[in-house]
Amino acid sequence: MAEPEDDGDEVDLGISLEIVATVVDLANAVQEAEEAALGDDDDDEDLDDDEDEEISEEMLTDYIDELNEEQQVALIALAWVGRGDYEPEEWEEAVKLATERNVKGDASTYLAGLEGLGDLLSEGAGAFGLVIEEVDR
Questions:
Q1: Cα(130)–Cα(137) distance, rounded to whole angstroms?
Q2: Where are the compositionally biased (Acidic residues) regions (predicted)?
Q3: Alpha helix segments (H runs only) across the chain
Q4: What does the alpha-carbon distance between residue 48 and residue 61 come to, in Å, rounded to a whole number?
Q5: Per-residue model confidence as pLDDT tens digits over 58-94
Q6: Which residues contact 84 (CB under 8 A, 6 or more apart)?
Q7: CA distance linking residue 17 with residue 113, whole number of Å
């Protein structure tokens, strides 16, 4: 079978890698804060100093809410690719179903509720040969 014609072209995810990287950073910070809160015994003194800088889930959801619908849908589809629900070749199908899933406009709540969102988005980008850790922020 022949190679896809767009083999050398980048896939248009409908969202910039900088935005994806920001969501990954926020999601990872929220996860770290939640994990720190669960083990909230010996490290209380260290956490008090960083409390003002702590990223909350509300900051993550507010950031996602500020994105346009196409960007929100792309994040959902990218998380699904990262979770293994879709392959990169099925991107258009994932986007179509993510659009249907986001008809109520609750992408931020849905995404914030996904376990390991930062990892899912990083894995999703990685499936397309993109490395989130290398994106300038």
A1: 15
A2: 32-53
A3: 17-38, 44-50, 57-66, 69-83, 91-101, 107-112, 117-127
A4: 24
A5: 999 999 999 999 999 999 999 999 999 999 999 999 9
A6: none
A7: 21
